[in-house]
Amino acid sequence: MGSIMKPEVHCKMLDGGWILLSIRAQENEKFHWLLESLKLKLHVLVYEKKLRKYKTSIHELKRLSDFCSRKGVDLFASDKVLHLYKRMCYRFKRIEQLRDVKNIDFPVQGWTEDPECVLYDYQKYCANIVVHARRFLIGDDMGLGKTPMAIAIILKSWELYNTGSAMIVCPERLQYQWKEEVHKFSTLRKNQVEIMGRRTCRNGTRPNFLTRGKVCKACRLYEACLFDMNTSKQSAADYRDLQIKRARVLVCGYASLRIHEKAFIDRKFTVIIFDEATRLKNMKADTTKAAENIVKLAPLTTTVVPMSGTFIENRIEELYSIMNIIDDRVLGNFCNFKARYLITDYWGNVTGYRNEGPLKEKLDRMLIRRTIDEVWKDRPPITEKVVECPFEKEQDQFYAEAREGVLQDIADLQKAKSVNMANVATLIGYLLQVADTVKSIDPETTIKEHSSKINVLKEMLMEEFPRKAKIVIFSRFSNKVIPYLIKELESLPKEIVGGGILSIVGGVSNKAQDKIILKMRTKKYHRILVCSDAMAYGGNLQFANYIVNFDLPWNPAVLDQRIRRVYRRGQKKSVTVFNMIVPGTVEEHLYQVLAHKRKLFTTFLKESLVQDRPEKKHILRQLISKI
Q1: In angstroms, rounded to a whole number, what is the distance separating the alpha carbons of residues 192 and 207?
Q2: Most C-beta atoms within 10 A of its C-beta, which of 20, 205, 526, 556?
Q3: Class of domain 8-91
Q4: How far from the centroid of its chain's Cα atoms is residue 18's Cα?
């Protein structure tokens, strides 16, 4: 073989859509020059330790080809590489064509015949794109009906690809709701949709199937359930394995991903839906790693759809984590992503973003997002108001003393050089609880006017709200504030309270939550529902038309999620939101920062995918100066 006159790059196909690069050059200087140039030019370049060579993504082939032609480097690619690249280009071209389609006919085999359960045009548009793309993010605004879209995607995928099994991963409290929605919008039988770990008779003949050793001999599905005929009971682990094998649609919680990771990989579902996919935003969490392994080891024909109305709650890195699950070739590993798009300080903290255009272009190919303003034209009006609740004299004095104590604690931490954001957040949370009620800090207090907010809320219930109105009250302090809030509200006259105050907090079981929501929706004498942020995700509260944010969360996405529980598809009445704040306290400044972040969040998703936004630690620093 003769000497190499020009540098060469040889491309060979690896598993998972990666390209192995072999660099050849006559001189060491040219070899290192070419390698360093590729590191600068290619967005994704990963060192494969086992092979001792670099690999790049199939998405980078065009960029690699352009670089080699400009620099006079010979590029050789195998037939497999070229074939996969042509398929990828065709897929993206097809997606662009589907995006241009306005009036779409999207019949779904297996969809219910109920005339009230129809797909809107924007839902058909999205489902059609996702079915053909197979790996896609749905980031539609909260309340636009992502659940029917997901069910249509499942049914259409089964129809097009002649196979059918699906896994829906969602927060634990939404499992029963998902099962009801699948039965509502599809013709699937009840025994084809199972909730992970729920031990029930598939035929419905026995309510206590597989409980306390009882044998369901009357069930016609007895043999199909594979119940051990020689014993009187079956272990819970065996039953869960059985559910994974037999269910056509399996609904499971995020905790089950890491527990049953191997079983999910072996099952090879044809459609995987991740609802409220922000649960996967932490790339180091075991749940996120399990989800990544399940998708990575699934066939490339598997349809994977993460869904959330708030993909980005604080940082762009959260969206990177979810994007990496559906296709790790687009953004590469985190080192590639950090070097290309993040600006960091000396200590590695993210201070800003760069290369916004290329990043936005990449994400736009695999993400669709519509807002309420775009698709819900006939929506009822919504009004947001600020209710100021100035302190009474005694509570004001208590807050001033608490404020001095917090400042002293922060000064002590700074002196000891042990300040961290968790400590500061705890101290500021202490002041926010005092602003709600003194009793949250000192239950034995003798202060009569312990909460200006509760007094103002009582006046609003007596005078401002109509007698037939349904009201949802949110508070983030489920153990410290909500018990005192409920106790005070129950002292109101019966014509105001009605059948009593209902509440949903983190410790309430899913079944109990469903019963409480059903009471609020169907019983006229139940008017007031008090919730923690456990209810801020996934619930349907369209029966209400007033929302009271008794206190504010750190995150503007959580605040929007609260509002979208009520103001969503199916809401026919005008909605009014009351944000209660105490002027002159840290709470007032928190509201101002949240309003600013909400405005930037909207711009961030609609106009530019990366902008400098105040992170939580920056909020804390600002709040310290305002204490």
Answers
A1: 17
A2: 556
A3: alpha beta
A4: 28
**What is the four-CA torsion angle of 484, 486, 492, 496, rounded to 10 degrees?**
160
Q: Which CATH superfamily is domain 106-188+252-327+366-376 in?
A: Tandem AAA-ATPase domain (3.40.50.10810)
Residue 475's CB: how many other CB atoms inside 10 A? 25
Q: Where are the alpha helices (DSSP H) in 342-447?
A: 356-364, 372-375, 393-415, 421-436
Mind spelling out the 3-state secondary structure of 191-228? HHEEECCCCCCCCCCCCCCCCCCCCCCCCCCCCCCCCC
Strands in 18-24's sheet, in edge-to-edge order, are 45-48, 53-57, 18-24, 8-13, 74-77
Task: Give the residue from 475, 464, 435, 466 showing the smallest Cα distance to 451.
Answer: 435
* % of the chain residues with pLDDT over 70: 85
Higher pLDDT, 105 or 156: 156
Output b/e per residue, 589-613; b: 16+ Cβ within 10 A.
bbbebbeebeeebeebbeeebbeeb
Residue 141 dihedral angles phi and psi, to the nearest 5°: -60, 155
For helices 28-41 and 61-71, the axis angle rounded to 10 degrees is 140
pTM: 0.75
Cα 183 to Cα 114, 224, 361: the distances in Å are 11, 22, 38
